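Here is one such tokenized protein:
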Amino acid sequence: MLNLNYAYRIYPDVSQEKELLDWLEICRGVYNYALRERKEWINSRKCKVNACSLHCEYIIPADQPFPDYYKQKKALTQAKKEYPSLKRVQSQVLQEVMGRLDKAFNFFWKRSFGFPRFKKYGQYRSINFPQFKENPVTGHQLKLPKIGSVLINLHRPIPDGFVVKKVQIVKKASGWYAVICIQSDVKIPSPKPQGKSLGIDLGLEKFIATSQQELIARPKFFVELQSKLRWLQRRLSKNKKGLKTGIKPVKK
């Protein structure tokens, strides 16, 4: 299986751009709400009962499970009934928002630092369309669900044998872009070793250590050129500013 990502510039019209900007804000609100839900659950388990502030803390029942990806994804159905604006966004795009938050939490738990933060206005700049029933690219048009056909600068044609799996729409300072993930069901052969392989490791005490137990000392460029640099600095300090002779030591 071979996956490739191609980035193209797209040119949505005025109504399409307004709709995309509204989608970004809706997705940002969903992301922040889901993050707050997880954060409140974690805080409710960290504080003691006799030290919990009844005025500021949101008390969550002890038997309520952690709001993981699947629970928050399922809660989107009820949220659409309470907030009709969520229906404007394609359902899979909203599900990808939950997936993005879940991925951020997985990175946090794996590294033990970098707790996910709330997205401020303008910080949520991309939306994902994870699935397409048919090829969305026809000619110089990119067909997006609930958005319509958007003009695309297809400077690199999609190779034969590849199908479009997902599309990411990104808002940058220079404009709108579509990152298209294409996939081909081909087997990639494993590289065959040719000749002798050599492992190289860079270190501090020894600059290079090879797998053949060869150690190369650290080159001391600064130490060797320090005396010349000291001489050039003394010469530069004695020259007066504005004279042509004062420029020569600097160029050296």
The chain has two domains: 2-184, 200-241. The chain has a mean pLDDT of 87. The chain has five helices and ten strands. The first strand starts at residue 2 and ends at 11.
